[in-house]
Specification:
Length: 293
C-alpha cells in the first residue's frame, strides 16, 4: 500500500493510474477504522482496479469542539487493517494540507432542507463541513466511484446533492454499502470505541427500537410510534435528539402512513456523552436506485 501525505504527490500517482486505464474507487474516512469501513474497501476492490482510502479528521464538520478533541485516533491499527484488505493507496493529509488558507472563509453549499432537519438541526454547520472536505477530496482523487456507508443515511443524501451541484464531478458515482452491525445489532461506528462496558451493553437498544418502529409501522399512529420509542430510549438512559419516521428519498417527516411511500426510521441519541445514530428502511422497497447511481 502506498501512503501519501501531500496532495500533489497523490495526484501525480493517480494520473499515472488513470493513464493506464485503471478504474478508481474511493473511501473517505476519519480513521478509527472498523469492519464497516473494511466492507467499503472490499466493495471498492471488487469493482475497481485501485482503491484509495483517506484518513482525515475534518475540523470543519464538528460543531462541538470537545467532540473533535475526543474523536478516536488509531492510525497504526488503521494502516494495518488497510494493508490486510489490500487497499492500494492511503491519503493522510494534515489540516494545513487540506486548508492551506485556513477555515474561516470556506465555500458554503446550497444543500437545502437537508441542512436544517434531523442531523442538520442538531449539528448546525456539520453538513457544510462534510461538503467542504468531500468536495476537496473528490477534486484531488477524481474517483470513478465514491463508497459510503448507509449508517450515515442523511450524509449520503447530502453528498448526492453535492455531486448534483458539482456538474464537473458527475462522472463520479456514489455506491452505498449497507450498515454492518455487531452481533447484538449495534451499528458499527468509530464512536463505539468511546463506550464504556455498561454503555456498550445499552447501546444496542437503539437497533431494537428501530426494529420495533418497523414492526409497528402501518399498525400504530406514527406519532404514537415515535413517543413509544423516545420513552423506551429515555428509560434505558439515553438522551434523545430525535426518533423520526421520514420519507426515504427526501427525509421530510411523514405525518400519516401511506403504504406507497418509501419510509425510513432514524434515531440519534446520547448514551452518557457519546452520540450514536442509526437508521432502518421501513418499507420493502429500498432506496438503492437513489443512492447507488
Amino acid at each position: 500500500m502506498l501512503i501519501f501525505h501531500k496532495t500533489e504527490d497523490l495526484k501525480k500517482q493517480l494520473l499515472r493510474e488513470r493513464q493506464t486505464g485503471k478504474k478508481l474507487g474511493f473511501v473517505p474516512t476519519m480513521g478509527a477504522l472498523h469492519d464497516g469501513h473494511m466492507e467499503l474497501i472490499k466493495a471498492s476492490r471488487k469493482e475497481h482496479d485501485k482503491t484509495i482510502c483517506s484518513i482525515f479528521v475534518n475540523p470543519t464538520q464538528f460543531n462541538d469542539p470537545t467532540d473533535f478533541e475526543k474523536y478516536p485516533q488509531t492510525l497504526q491499527q488503521d494502516i494495518k487493517k488497510l494493508e490486510t484488505m489490500q487497499c492500494s493507496i492511503l491519503f493522510l493529509p494534515s489540516v494545513e494540507e487540506m486548508y492551506p488558507s485556513g477555515t474561516a472563509l470556506l465555500e458554503q453549499f446550497p444543500i437545502g432542507s437537508l441542512e436544517t432537519i434531523l442531523e442538520g438541526k442538531y449539528r448546525p454547520g456539520h453538513f457544510q463541513g462534510v461538503c467542504q472536505i468531500v468536495d476537496h477530496l473528490l477534486t484531488i482523487v477524481e474517483p470513478d466511484t465514491l463508497y459510503l456507508g448507509q449508517k450515515d443515511y442523511q450524509q449520503c443524501m447530502v453528498l448526492h446533492r453535492l455531486l448534483e451541484l458539482r456538474t464537473y464531478k458527475q462522472n463520479t458515482k456514489i455506491k452505498i454499502v449497507p450498515t454492518l452491525r455487531e452481533q447484538d445489532g449495534l451499528a458499527m461506528s468509530s464512536r463505539n470505541i468511546r463506550l464504556d462496558t455498561e454503555s456498550r451493553k445499552t447501546a444496542s437498544q437503539i437497533y431494537r427500537c428501530l426494529l420495533n418502529m418497523k414492526s409497528w409501522y402501518g399498525k400504530l399512529e406514527l406519532e404514537e410510534i415515535k413517543i413509544k420509542v423516545q420513552e423506551d430510549l429515555t428509560h434505558h438512559g439515553f438522551r434523545v435528539d430525535y426518533a423520526e419516521i421520514a420519507d426515504a428519498l427526501t427525509l421530510q417527516p411523514i405525518k400519516k402512513y401511506d403504504p406507497e411511500q418509501h419510509a425510513v426510521a432514524l434515531i440519534a441519541a446520547f448514551i452518557n456523552d457519546v452520540r450514536l445514530i442509526d437508521n432502518l428502511v421501513l418499507t420493502d422497497t429500498t432506496t438503492d436506485s437513489k443512492v447507488s447511481n
